[in-house]
Amino acid sequence: MKLPLRTLTMLTLAVLVSEVAPAWKIQYAEQFYELYHQHMYRYPEDGAENIWYLSMALRSPFANPLNALAVIENEIEWEKYRNLFVMHTYLKLVDEYLSMAAKYDKFNAYFFNYPWKSANLDSMRTAEQYYKLALECWELALSYSDVVREPRFRWIHLDELTFWEDEAYRIETGDLDYRDIIESHLARLDRTQREFENMDYETY
């Protein structure tokens, strides 16, 4: 079978690129973090992808300070940088888990949803698990923000990470508090679950 010239050209380019392109091994926390990206439209598979990248960032070693996401000049800056990084990454995981929970949550138990009662309850159980994971990540973020706020770090400011520094400050002042948000979601979810459980042919 004779291939069109365009197809042959593309295949030739693909072979040439694969032969000369160097492999790039992803092994450091910063590399995994930089793969995290936000989508205009969030789908469960996108959220799962981001959760994997962020989880790998937390499990991986940090790159050399020369390759950090901020200018690091001494050991105290390096220590603050690592704690800020972990705190911020856990906050990003909170966002992703909340987004995933919203995909499965049923915010209202409408009577006409009775025919899908079982499926709705299954979906809400999945949402509950994501809310609980978000709460776990929030608690871990809090523990690292406590370290960042220690007196020895008070006068250390990493210019490139101003947004992360602001997150730590907002946690300290109580302006950023995911616990209240997540617990209100869980309380509402529990009420909605009970409404679905109480549905029967008479309510439908």
Enumerate how many helices there are, as a single number.
Answer: 7
The beta-strand count equals: 0
Largest sheet: none
User: Would you tell me the overall average pLDDT?
Assistant: 86
Q: Which structural category fits the helices and strands?
A: mainly alpha
Report the sheet-strand fraction.
Answer: under 5%
| Oligomeric description of these chains | single chain
Which regions have little confidence, pLDDT < 50, spanning 5+ residues? Answer: 5-18
3D shape: elongated
* Secondary structure: helix percent: 55-70%
Question: H/E element string?
Answer: HHHHHHH
Rg computed from alpha carbons, rounded to a whole number of angstroms: 23 Å
What is the first-to-last residue Cα distance?
62 Å
